[in-house]
Design goal:
alpha/beta, 4-stranded parallel β-sheet
Length: about 120
């Protein structure tokens, strides 16, 4: 399965680069277990951040980011088979879950729920 890992990225960071990086690393921490289980992990920021840079954006606070960050997740969800929702307040991740459910995709709230992941 292609599994979107969703959770806090900007939430609670004040757009501080060090805190954004910490949140991205937390999202990425789920990628190896998902990959080991035979799936392909995906994080929206892996796609959106390079697109933002190429569009001339210098931070997630740039006005252009609103046209890229969440729309990227929406487009990715057209190709994903499931969502892993990590803990923490995140409007974007909540929107990912709502869209996944609307499309009938499984939503996991714990890494151990992902098929094949060893607890």
């Amino acid at each position: 399965m292609l599994i979107l890992i969703a959770g806090p990225y900007r939430s609670g960071t004040g757009d501080d680069p060090a805190l954004l990086e910490r949140n991205l690393r937390r999202l990425e921490s789920a990628s190896w277990p998902i990959f080991q289980a035979g799936h392909v992990p995906m994080i929206g920021e892996w796609v959106a951040l390079p697109v933002l840079r190429e569009a001339g954006g210098t931070s997630v606070a740039d006005p252009i980011a609103g046209k890229i960050m969440y729309p990227t997740a929406e487009r990715l969800l057209e190709h994903c088979d499931a969502v892993l929702r990590l803990e923490g307040a995140s409007t974007g991740a909540d929107q990912d879950v709502a869209l996944a459910r609307q499309r009938g995709l499984p939503v996991y709230f714990d890494l151990a729920e992902v098929p094949g992941v060893e607890a």
